[in-house]
Fold this protein.
Amino acid sequence: MSKKLKLVSLLIVVIAVGWGIGKYTTTSPSASNSGSNINVQDNLQAKPGEDGNSAEGGITEPVVANPSNSTDPSDPSESDNGGKGNSTDDSFKEPDSIAVMVNKQYGLPDNYKPSDLVYPDVRFTFKEKIEKRMMRKEAAEALEKLFAGAEEDGIYLAGVSAYRSKETQTRLFNRYVEKDGEELARTYSAVPGYSEHQTGLAIDVSGSDGKCAAESCFGGTKEAEWLAQHAAEYGYIIRFPEGKQDITGYKYEPWHIRYVGKDIATYIAEKGITLEEYYDVVPVSK
């Protein structure tokens, strides 16, 4: 073979080898675009944020809605909302809110009086149209439906005491203190300015005969049993349930019902909790 021919052959071999190396070292389009073929080492040295993930470094977690932001009744134990249960704002502290919280920690403004007090058209244990016969309009209308529903079941209720001004609560509380001492009085009567009766949303009830009105013997009566089973259907709750004194701060009062609206009342009744537990504002001091 001539020297010239050998050089041509050698050149062909070099070109062929070079072509083969290039073919097997070039990244294919499918490999560069497929998530399943990403080179694991590609982003090991990437600066935070350069890989399309979190600017803090690492993978960005999916954004999930906070359950505590729901306005529907939810389990207060699952919330992290500043001691407000499922509430999304401070409305439970607003005195004019239907669902206002009033207890030994949460009071009302000085000389607070609801602007929409009316006389509910229901039976009371007295005839006079006086202060303690009044309630806020929405609560009064719900009470009328509650009494009517009870009568359909053969239960005849009567109102005992509804709205009380701060002045009235002051006289009442002072009388209890004189009778039983302040420590004991606080277990069954609110300090002035901290009474649910002042909201116009609470009422003490009894049977139509007035027997056991606001007394422990009311518990276990057919009227008390009906209220426990059906009050929530009308937006009312038994505000101070049995066995919850350490939470509510008051002894069991089966006659004291409080209007909070059907949604909250139904949730509280189904869960067997108190308004304090609903808003996650426990415990209450005695």
